[in-house]
Specification:
With 263 residues, the protein is an alpha/beta fold. The protein contains 8 helices and 10 strands. Strands 1, 4, 5, 6, 7 and 10 form a 6-stranded parallel sheet that branches. A two-stranded parallel sheet has the order 2-3. The structure holds zinc ion. Zinc ion is lined by residues 94-95, 157, 161, 197.
Length: 263
Amino acid sequence: MKGAGPVTGAPQAARAGAWRRDGQFRLRDLPMILMYHGVAEVPEDPNLLCVTPRRFAEQMTWLERHGLRGVGVGTLVNAMRAGRQRGLVGITFDDGYVSVLEAAVPELARHGFGASAYIISGRLGGTNEWDEGPSWPLLSASGVRELAAAGLEIGSHAATHLRLAGAGPEQLESEVGRSRASLAELLGTEIRGFAYPYGSMDAAAREAVREAGYDYACAVEASMAEAGLMALPRMYIGQQDDAARMAAKRLLYRGRIALRGRR
Ligand SMILES: [Zn+2]
């Protein structure tokens, strides 16, 4: 295991209990979670969804140099429950692009890092047709199995990439509940994690995720009032994020979440 090993003790464990009761937590206990989509060299990327393999390598090296270890969010949540999340950073990939298997997995392996990939259960082998812009291939069923075999945590990114804020009970059931069941069947394992498409969620969506049996869910711009195990805030990382910007983003991470709550 590379990176700084977390130091644990009784006071830390007691603090962890503060958020465990209601699934919410204090700002200073909030670990950093990075959000990626594709890792590929692409001719055009108007929605800024890809980082090049070279940039991704730089960013992973930056984490390691700063004594941080990249892990999947399931692992991070376990560590949070034990009050041992110090030095850990969640790494996530939304949508399930083929490029994650091709380019991110080998780089993660070089650093001994883990990560989570959130898969759209009803679009296996398809493309990102919900986006306006270039079309990129999504992993097929066998590709998702390969990703899991490579050690990535597989979670759900809904069934069709529907925006969940404002969705009705039937839509929530099919996007949240059925997608969990179908990925569990595909992999023969429990699916613990969910990531809201577009980061779009409301109280009903968070409740649907909890009801469906997920252990946690990743949001994007969750405020401190919404933040909790059913809405873990994440930070977008893109091609522009060189070492200096990574350092600035790390410094500002908690402050930005705190400010969101006051808007
Ligand atoms: Zn997505």
